[in-house]
Specification:
Elements: E1 5-15, E2 23-32, E3 35-39, E4 48-53, E5 58-59, E6 63-68, H1 84-99, H2 102-118, E7 121-126, H3 131-141, E8 144-147
Parallel strand pairs: 1-4, 1-5, 6-7, 7-8
Antiparallel strand pairs: 1-2, 2-3
Length: 163
């Protein structure tokens, strides 16, 4: 008999990231603690403390967003109908100079993480300011991120780094 698991997702179409990108129709995923212990036909008959019927749904690995400025969720829509150079130099850099702080970044990253989680994103690469704050807010949200400080040629009031 197969080892018991904590959660069994049943009756799902299971997408994998194995070498063949196997799709298991009407199958299952078994979870023990924070680990997947069986995927596909091997998981179907596992005893579980909790079972969730996923009929009509797809179970798949989390998505990865490879380019974010998560905290900028707070300024979404600000003058977004302009050319990039006008938007960046005329609006965003002045707004960032005035308002971006660790608290701004923490709040914006929390909002950005909530939106990403809702969209199936489990990991992201971020490049903004106060990346240690981005890392803290990301960990609090239960997500993973690669955090890298933004480097600019011009002074922003936040960082001056000449390349």
């Amino acid at each position: 008999m197969a080892e018991a698991c904590d959660l069994l997702l049943t009756n799902a179409t299971v997408l994998t990231m194995d070498d063949r990108f196997t799709i298991h129709p009407n199958s299952a995923v078994a979870v023990a603690g924070d680990s997947l212990v069986a995927v596909g036909p091997d998981a179907v008959t596992r005893p579980a403390r909790e079972t969730l019927d996923c009929r009509g749904r797809v179970v798949m690995p989390g998505l990865v967003n490879a380019h974010t400025h998560a905290a900028m969720a707070l300024v979404r829509g600000l003058a977004d109908d302009l050319r990039l150079d006008v938007w960046l130099m005329g609006y965003m850099m002045p707004v960032e100079r005035e308002f971006v702080s660790p608290d701004f970044v923490r709040l914006g990253t929390r909002l950005g993480c909530a939106e990403m989680i809702r969209s199936g994103i489990t990991c992201f690469a971020d490049m903004y300011y106060f990346e240690e704050t981005v890392a803290e807010a990301t960990a609090e949200a239960g997500m993973r991120a690669l955090c890298a400080q933004t480097i600019l040629r011009c002074p922003t009031g936040l960082l001056l780094c000449v390349i």
